[in-house]
Amino acid sequence: MSAQAQATALQYAGDYAISARGLTRVFGKVRAVDGIDLDIPRAGIYGFLGPNGSGKSTTIRMLCGLLRPTSGTVNVLGHEMPRDAEQLRTRLGYMTQKFSLWDDLTVHENLQFMGQVFGLPAPRRKSRIDAAAAEFNLEQLFGQRAGTLSGGQRQRLALAAATLHEPELLLLDEPTSAVDPQSRRDFWESLFALVTRGVTILVSTHYMDEAERCHQLAILANGKLVAQGAPPRLMTDIAAKVVEVEAIDTPAARHALLADPAVLSVAQLGTRLHVLLDPAQQDPAERIAARLREAGVDGESTLVRASLEDVFVAATGFGRGNGDRAGG
Amino acid sequence: MLLRLLAITSKEVRQLSRDRLTFGMIIGIPLMQILLFGYAINFDVRDLRAAVVDDAKTSHSRALVADLEATGVIELAAPSPNVPDLTRRMASGEVSVGIVIPADFERRRMGGDRAIAQVLIDGSEPMVDSVARALASVPLPARAGDYRSHTPAFEVRTEYNPERRTAVQVVPALIGVILNMTMVIFTAAAIVRERERGNLELLIATPIRSWELMAGKLLPYVLIGLIQTTLILTVGARIFDVPINGSLLDLYLAAALFIAATLTLGLVISTFARTQFQAFQMSFLTLLPSILLSGFVFPFDGMPRLAQLIAQLLPLTHFVEIIRGIVLRGAPLAAMQVPALKLVVFFIVALAIATLRFRKRLD
């Protein structure tokens, strides 16, 4: 990495919780993370959206110093990573993708252990554990072994453990991938509560609804950062026009539309189809309606505002990479 | 920082107390081993099946056979009519010792310049030596009027183990073998287990330092090792009558030193292994040379140079030397500084290797 790029990374450090330039990680022949630039503002929720294998976990692991980048620089809270990783440990909270507290210890023992390992003195440890128990509704579970908890309970415990030492920056790797919708909603409430206290949160997800809740979002695909910005902004700036088609015979409609070169992708949402078209089209709804008439398929077509899912499809190359244009 | 180290230690103790199988192993393995080794390993040979080919058939030849049987080393089966029959019975495993008394037995006996009889021993079993020695030392039956005494050239006195009981030789060193077996496996699995269960990724994202993690994992097992030592010594004294001639304090100090050394060996293994299965395999890889080369089974001085050099790298070698000194010869630990220092060096070097090899990273 050049001296100039390094200087840029340092300059950003003041305003951002995390800055990364040209972040790359190669495993053998696979470029798991490929030249990512990131600027993550303080006191907000920053989301990583991407399918499995898009490089979300690898990026998070590099940001908290668990993996060394093959190339590129990372600046976290004004410190260079991974060089200063150990100094930053008490200021970071990390929640792994897989539940990684101890199954054979009770909820209270797990919290106690984490408090000790983070060096909290006994009185503060006690008050923090009590506060975490109240906040994450864990009091009744204190004596229960972590291995016997439900998915939602485990995740509350993991978040309580990760925030016990009151970190400034919280890195959460797919924290909600194994929990029910109600637990997911509660979990996000907790995240917003943390943000109001000034905590910066980086969270990876593959749920669109969660991605939409983030203040800032980065879309990752095949190790590359393909779009970055606030979700509403990403939806207005989408490089496509979106037409929603209401049709009875959706397979026929889809078949007819995919034949049009102006159509970039067709995705099914229930009985409706979301059709992404070349943004140069002047009247995309009419064009789609004409195509359907030509093919003899009944259907209503309306120009609509792009959803985050459309943004995702557009940002990841309209699903062309895997040969299925209607992917997403 | 002490808080973090103790956090690891108390977590380890909690987890251990909840793992019934491992907890059982702490008591079960030493108990099983000492009973097994104490009873089964017996270098004194007795009651081997033997057959006689007596071509002389004189009163003296019968007296010789009776004397041989009286040693207790052999137990006579039906005699064989000839040597080919005897070799056939030996090959089939029916008898393991054959005694051939030639037809000219009486003449050989008078002449005194040739061996008077032949003893055939099944060399496929690990006892040839002691059988040969026991049988060859039987004096010729005295003949009326023969007043020549059969005084042996040397009188052998076995110091520290006058009755030459195997248990006395085996049990003290067995402390080392058993500790070696359990301690290495415990710590070899300790870090790999965290890795396998996914706890390691969380653990390395905390401020814990490598040496705190290593030392914290080690501490509880030192105590467990000392408990095992006590168990083996008690069983050794009660069941096998093995005396403890030296100071108990010295003995426990030496044991603690050895325990620390074997535990760090386990930690080193733990930093190499990716799975618990690999950790177990590697533990056994260190166990076999330890048992064979440490002087536990074979006398150290009789081993080839290379084997002796390898043995120097194994903590068990030094511990066997120390523990036999303390338990049997009543020597103070201070008199065995060299092997004790070797254990200290082993501990420091292994702990350094384990700490340096353990990186708080995933790559």
Describe the overall structure:
The complex is a heterodimer of chains A (328) and B (363). By secondary structure, chain A is of the alpha/beta class. Chain A has two domains: 41-60 and 85-234, P-loop containing nucleotide triphosphate hydrolases (Rossmann fold, 3-Layer(aba) Sandwich), CATH 3.40.50.300; 238-322, 2-Layer Sandwich (Alpha-Beta Plaits). Helix content of chain A is 36%, strand content 27%. Chain A contains twelve helices and 14 strands. Chain A has helices at residues 3-13, 56-63, 85-88, 107-117, 122-135, 151-163, 181-196, 208-213, 231-236, 250-258, 284-295, 308-315; strands at 16-27, 30-41, 45-49, 71-76, 79-81, 92-95, 169-172, 200-205, 216-221, 224-229, 241-247, 263-269, 272-277, 299-304. In chain A, helix 4 (107-117) packs across helix 5 (122-135), helix 4 runs parallel beside helix 6 (151-163) and helix 10 (250-258) packs across helix 11. The relative contact order of chain A is 0.12. Chain B has helices spanning 2-18, 20-40, 59-70, 83-91, 105-111, 128-136, 166-196, 199-203, 210-240, 248-272, 276-293, 305-312, 315-327, 337-357, and strands at residues 48-54, 74-76, 97-101, 118-121. The longest helix of chain B is centred in the middle third of the chain and has 31 residues, at 166-196. Chain B folds into two domains: 2-41 and 165-357, no CATH class; 48-136, abc type-2 transporter like fold (3-Layer(aba) Sandwich). In chain B, helix 2 packs antiparallel against helix 7, helix 2 packs across helix 9 (210-240) and helix 9 crosses helix 10. A four-stranded mixed β-sheet of chain B has the order 2-1-3-4, with helices on both faces. With 363 residues, chain B is mostly helical. In chain B, strand 1, helix 3 (59-70) and strand 2 (74-76) form a beta-alpha-beta unit. The mean pLDDT of chain B is 84. Helices cover 63% and strands 5% of the residues of chain B. The A-B interface holds A 61, 64-68, 82, 85-86, 89-90, 92, 94, 96, 98-105, 109, 113-114, 116-119 and B 1, 3-4, 6-8, 11, 14-15, 18-19, 197-208, 360-363.
